[in-house]
Amino acid sequence: MFTSFFYTLRERKVPVSITEWMTLMEALSRGYISTLNDFYYLARAILVKSEAYFDHYDVAFQEYFKGIKGPPQISEEILNWLKDPLTRLLLSEEERALLANMDLDELLAELEKRLQEQTEQHDGGNYWIGRAGTSPFGHSGQNPSGFRVGGGGGGRSAIQIAEQRQFRNYRHDLTLDIRQIEVALKGLRQFNRTGPEDELDLDKTIDATAKNAGDIEMIWRRSRKNKVKLLLLMDVGGSMDPFAHLCSLLFSAAHRSTHFKDFQYYYFHNCLYDYVYRDIEWRDAVTVDHLLQNTEPDYKVILVGDAWMSPSELSTVYGAIYYYERNRKPGIVRLKQIADHFSHCVWLNPESTTYWNEPTVMMIRKIFPMFELTIEGLQQAVKKLIVKR
Amino acid sequence: MDKGGFDKFKGSPDYVTSEALRNAVNVSIALKRPLLVRGEPGTGKTLLSHSIAKDLGKNLIVWNIKSTTKAQEGLYVYDTVQRLNDSRFGDKNISDIKQYIKLGKLGEAFAATEEIVLLIDEIDKADLEFPNDLLNELDEMSFYIPEIGETITAAHRPIVIITSNAEKELPDAFLRRCIFHYIEFPEPDLMEEIVRVHFPDIRGNLLSQALATFYSLRKIDDFRKKPSTSELIDWIRVLIASGTPEKVITSEIPFAGTLLKKETDYAYFINTFMKKKQTTKASDN
Question: Which of A177, A380, B55, B283 is deepest in the core (most CB within 10 A)?
Fold first, then answer.
């Protein structure tokens, strides 16, 4: 019964196992279901174990029970276009001039208009408008919990619920909130015993007590603590502006995480040259030489940046886009210095992988393992950072 | 809807539930599988099990998980140090190990003489391996105590509710055995019902003003922590107690500190939102 639904789900990347499927069959055979609505919730509760997959489930459900395909590809493209502010760099000169004349509100209005035009032809139309709210354009008026446009609770059919795809924002492949970043960063743990002796060592206590002719002798030991030290280097140059919010989320998450032994952070612009900065306004400068000298190689290093610049900015002396940098060493040499000094480095790129074949991105990827700044990418980066060398 | 003996949980008067949640609870009871509940903080994950216990007239055992909790502690603890200590004095029969075996919360739930509700609260706080360590016990509903050679078996399978804040990923093997429900943030209609449970005499006007303001605040993405249900309830309590006139609720948002708990959020709110308001209307708070 419904076996092909099982495969539809798996095709849609919902991790359903046979165990869960059999559980559903058991529930069905007991006749708990009388409507499709019941089935929607029952199957979801049994088969899907994370809200991150609710959206995949909705898509599969629509596909199976309505015989319609998921949202047409064009919608996804719009979504990507929205999500990805740098696409505007690819616009023609005229278009760019037009955009330059608009202020932010106009730009947003234009966006929304285009969005509306596109989506009117599709089922999920209401939906896409809502999505605009999370685009980095800063359209804060519509947020994930506010986007629902269709009717209230109760009377909706299962397919309508599935169609609304209200769990779209819970997908793992989207960057979400600070908490999720914290969760990902929690993976950065390596324990050893340090600090005061505050844990009872039972085995040694028994040994000592036995040696002491049965008079209890307590032996204490140090408790296990995380020894991971983190160094965060963040690009705050002009091309990173669209990702400022995302980067600040990452920063807050790292800052709030209490499980690091030490956490240091510096800013740079565009590429790493002779100086890094303690503040975002670039006033409090520290030379990279000083940084390398005073930071032990066992710091885990996360660099954040779009790695997108003119090749000369990366490879030539005095190539820095900001004239006052007057870098004596090319950026690429500096980056190599970082990579050589620290044993574990990763580069997080807020740009989507589609742009990673830019020359400078390719060059930097040869030096640092690069990951996308999404929950998934961050998880992979964290794994890379705790691997033993 | 004919569901046989299945449709048991209907929600208690002081806890408002959605249809999907009731379904999930009933499925988990009927299939005898643990129910895993996730959701934003303040959406009533923990209260759910209290409501289930009340509605079904069963006792509730709560096992609060901390970062140091081990799976073994939930089953039983063998107090070796006490026994070692007692051995020095000879006033107790230390060869009777049973007196040093103390059942944990899970052990208590198994040993209960009637069906009870067991809440395992915030399971993700513990070590990553914690849920896996409980797999077998939750499956078989029994465990063996080698020290005394006894097996504790549940005569009545407890209704197990597990809450999680998604701080850690839970192991797949564990998830496969659970029924899952994600408590969404309540829609305004449901929220109105929830507020009315807490304040049955609330004036409709005050309620609608407060809700409108609350949901408009939640729409601001820049807040680090968005206000949740429990903050709304607190806020309404303050509004009622202070006798704030209804018309200023939306325009001035008095006592915003009750809703916004983070300093940065509050500062952001004062800087952007209130300034805008002040240009249109002189404030008098």
Answer: B55
